[in-house]
Amino acid sequence: xxxxxxxxxxxxxxxxxxxxxxxxxxxRMAARRFLRHRLAVTSxxxxxxxxxxxxxxxxxxxxxxxxxxxIPASTPPSMAHPxxxxxxGQDVMGQVMRGTQQSLKVALTVALISTxxxxxxxxxxxxxxxxxxxLMMRFVDVILVVPLLVLVxxxxxNVRGGTSWWAxxxxxxxxxxxxxxxxxxxxxxSLREQEFIEACRAxxxxxxxxxxxxxxxxxxxxxxxxxxxxxxxxxLAEAALSFLGFGIQPPDTSLGLLIENARAAPFxxxxxxxxxxxxxxxxALTINFVGDGMRDALDPRQTMTRR
Amino acid sequence: xxxYTMRRxxxxxxxxxxxxxxxFLLIDLSGDPLGDLRVAQPPVDPAVIASEEVxxxxxxxVPQRYxxxxxxxxxxxxxxxxxxxxxxxxxxxxxxxxxEIGARFLITLRLVVIALMMAIGLAIVSGVISAVxxxxxxxxxxxxxxxxALAMPAFWIGALIKxxxxxxxxxxGTGFATIGAASADTRGFTAWESFTDAAAHLFLPxxxxxxxxxxxxxxxxxxxxxxxxxxxxVRLARAKGVRNRVVIRRHALRTAxxxxxxxxxxxxxxxxxxxxxxxxxxxxxxxGDFFLESxxxxxxxxxxxxxxxxxxxxxxxxxxxxxxxxxxDPRIRYG
Amino acid sequence: MQARTxxxxxxxxxxxxxxxxxxxxxxxxxxxxxxxxxxxxxxxPPGNGVEAQPGFETCPEDPYNCNSGERADGGSITWLVVSGxxxxxxxxxxxxxxxxxxxxxxxxxxxxxxxxxxxxxxFNMDLLAEEPQLLSEDxxxxxxxxxxxxxxxxxxxxxADDFSVSWKLGTSAEAGHCEGCxxxxxxxxxxxxxxxxxxxxKTVTLTLKPGEVNLEWFTMFGVDDVGGGVMPAHVAxxxxxxxxxxxxxxxxxxxxxxxxxxxxxGPYRIVEGNLEERVIKExxxxxxxxxxxxxxxxxxxxxxxxxxxxxALSNNEIHGGSPIQLIEDILRSLDQMPNVHYxxxxxxxxxxxxxxxxxxxLQDVALRRAIFTAIDADNIAARIxxxxxxxxxxxxxxxxxxxxxxxxxxxxxxxxxxxxxxxxxxxLAEAGYEFDGQTLTLDxxxxxxxxxxxxxxxxxxxxxxxxxxxxxxxxxETNIEPTDDLGTMLFEGDYHIAQFGWSGDPAFVGLTSQxxxxxxxxxxxxxxxxxxxxLAQEELTRLDIxxxxxxxxxxxxIVLDEAYVLPLWDVPVFTFITDDYVNVRDNTATSLRGVYxxxxxxxxxx
Lengths: 307, 335, 606
Description:
The complex is a heterotrimer. Chain A contains 13 helices and no strands. Chain A has helices spanning 13-36, 38-55, 57-60, 92-128, 130-145, 148-156, 165-191, 195-202, 207-218, 220-243, 255-261, 270-298, 300-306. In chain A, helix 4 packs antiparallel against helix 5 (130-145). Chain A starts with 12 loop residues before the first helix and ends with a helix. Chain B has 2 domains: 2-83, no CATH class; 100-296, MetI-like fold, CATH 1.10.3720. Chain B has helices at residues 2-30, 35-38, 46-55, 62-71, 97-132, 137-151, 154-172, 191-229, 232-239, 244-281, 287-296, 300-328, and strands spanning 79-80, 85-86. Chain B has a two-stranded antiparallel ribbon with strand order 1-2. The chains are: A mainly alpha, B mainly alpha, C alpha+beta.
């Protein structure tokens, strides 16, 4: 692997190999430990099922979330409509599928954006240190000063003219990435003094290469855990926003919106009230357990004791 | 320690300032305080709108307005945070944002403080039990409850607790109230009656708010307690024959509380969020309600005042947590 | 002592600022400034030989006496108010919402209101010694004779001075009577030339400016007029305001904004309260009316959150209320409470679909007619209300509800709102449009997609989806775009097709010119038609109310023929009350709704 750029020495293959091998071992061990965590595995399976329900379900199920003249008004659960129907003539199962899909889109987008932005921000701050670190972390402090839901509400309340799922996702992400950035910065601070980073530097690797190829992969554990927490958080935040009237707007729907619309119904038409709520709890619960399992599996201290 | 406190307080000032700039910009971008007036039907006299613009200082540029809002220099005497004035409200010249925030703060404080204390207290107790009896039925039960509470939307918990309260009133003859912080008509109440009335109104919302905070805290408490129990010095203490209770109380718990202080500071911010939702469900006219009302009417100076207050609370909470660190952990000395 | 004047038939000319865009928005801030109808004096005071009629079953036949019964002395009631109010002054846009009027009803003396039959204007014969009469048509003038017994709570007589101050408080800046008054509606009062007192002020003579006509003069100073009644002059003097000085009157206006009224000229007085949580009232001991309140305490509790109503009701924290729209699960919950009566009927608001004529494609009347024809209004209404209220009423006239004496069915014969796809396609084919079973085209260009917009509450979002499906049948593609700021959306013409609501009372004169004349601010879709403009002018100068109504109907016939606005249905509303109370019932002809006769309320004799 000859380096075409003059002046830059190619990294000695041995070192690179050593690093990748170490990663692979870590990943395999983590996976093995995770699989031993029965609750986490069950949760992961459940979560995948919920995702499949949300994204594959609509392809198989005969009704979507919209009003259909053929659907009878306000019937309790039956074979034809397992979750019952609304007065206007919507199939609640179709609604819950769509709602779960939109809520998951929000949550997964939030997780993606917040971990990407948060990791890069934290890694750069940690790597450069000094005034760069100071400035970047003060910025994080500034965002953390104000309670999150408050800022989100203040922003989302004014996304006039109907809020779509990606707008909700963007607004939530804009304020939640800070947590990840702190975690990653902490990891990077401890990593950057380690020998392999110094080796990379000595070999002339650029900073972006160090961040992307070495620091972030080595902080993968905490990042993944933060990502799962972001999913749980975003699901609940979306629900809270819908409750306050600042979330996704009809005719589209989300789990939060479905519960909010059925808030008066727990005793009169429970089939409207419980299914969306159960799905929120299911998502948040399983993803929390998965996160917990991952935390255990990726815990570096456990790695050391078992070695 | 005094020096450290001072230093931390001074460091908080630029953060708060930057936060205020950020919020000011966001709020300015997000809506026109006079939007409703401009499209009112029948149309409002343009002269009225113009005079409202002047009253709300909307005739000035954003940087000018920010400076004015912060310092009050060049204003009409109703604005200037540094002078303790929060600015004019779209709710009319008579509406004093500062006084309103003050009055509502006391209402919300009652709710939040009690809920937080209970949440922290319960979290410590159940965290310790869970850790000491790790993998017992009690542990699983507490863990599961914690996770469940963590996974439920706050307004769902609130609604369920409210229905539970109404059910208890009907079936058990309890006297929980579901609306507001006090009965509608409290004239002629004795001190004792006022107290029981307030308690009846506090119970359900506090319970709901407590659950949301408790869930996160108990998880952390269990984890840090476990870590301490497995640490060398606790094993050493045990090996030396110190009684189990003493070990837990004097050695383990004290250390395990340290991470909890940090988390508590975060939970305070979360509780402010939670209070917004719980106040809506139980129809309290506290700060949360004030905030939502201000957001929906684009009352920018009210929203700013609110954000500054919550910012200060969060910063203070963090500072207190850091100071508590020192009290709890003898290894840390602030200089 | 009941005043049933079939005056509604003769009424006429108030540019009623009926604006309740939000009336059906379904959230907390609705129906601002709706100048609803007014009612006054209970037609048949309970216990006056009227047989007790517990419950609301008899309301359709006997709207004045349903749920009546004998009152026991004492007791307390807590009434639900579904939205907060910002200020105490009902003249201001912030204070004069329907909720402001509801909270303050029973404090200010008033001339009268439309009764629960939604037709008759009931004069307040507790205040008036005789029914007001029109004195002359040129200049337009009439007079009130006030009873000698009518006094404010401190014993000060209610006189022409109070009427004069109240008039000036409601005028615009140009009128020159007040500097700084921000009245929410000035059209009526700006017509007035003078308010003169005679006979110790007990006779009040009002005269309009030369050439001005107001066919609905009798609604002035009624419960749905700007202030919801008459403000006291002596209170201004006591607080140091010289009401003849325009600047000081402006100060009085602000004082009324900020000050909770402890004075009263009605059956109740406010003893404690704020506009965010609750207002506590007790009987005014100096009230001069025939039917005295029997309740010791009457509390208005403000609870905007719909989810909180049923638990509060079952927990005895509220006892009754009249929300502005149907909420299915609340009604279902009430069904499960044996001790609660409720009653559904058409409310003051109605829904309609409007085109934005600035959109080039929509300037073709054939396309507009076809779209209106393809919309199945009955199916939509049945889908929304059928479960709770199968008796919902389709709206067949833009101005007059079905029970209005001047109502004419304009819609049915046009076939619009019928959902007749074939008829719609025939109209389109004739106009040269081509439909291939999927898409509608004109000269090869696809029609649409159009932006179909409304607020995002359950009712309107269901309606949007059904309209979208109906229009797909004729190949017209639409995209639903909800809004949370209906006012701005309409004002800026930020829509192609929109659904919203208007709210009003039986008074009507001037509304057509407000809605449909060229350049009128409430003519959001930019409709312009020379005949309509001419007729609207003519309507305003008529001296006979039926003639004015005929012209209005003529205008709406044109509007419908031009397929600009399609009326859909009357928005149903409901009132509920526990069976512990009697004489509580709805009056949908006024903004006051259930509280219209609050001085007659009482606890039921067990």
